[in-house]
Design brief:
It contains three helices and no strands. By secondary structure, it is mainly alpha-helical. Helix 2 (about 15-40) packs antiparallel against helix 3. The model has no long low-confidence stretch (mean pLDDT about 90).
Length: about 80
Amino acid sequence: MRLFTEHPNSVGESYFEHMRVAASFGWPMIVAGIGAVLHGIFPFLFEKTGSKAIMQLHGRLVAARGRNEKENNFDPCI
């Protein structure tokens, strides 16, 4: 059981909270990745999809990291 709860607890989340947050990062990365592959084939499509997704997710990660550092002495190495 510890394998499933140790990391989520270290970032101040339950197992299911961590699953939700991880999925909220994972799905946009998958969609942006598909857009980037299609952009490679068709350069006129999805010109900013990948970079926009990266910037948005990075902003969320940095904001969450700041909150978690204050609340739980969050380890910034993930």
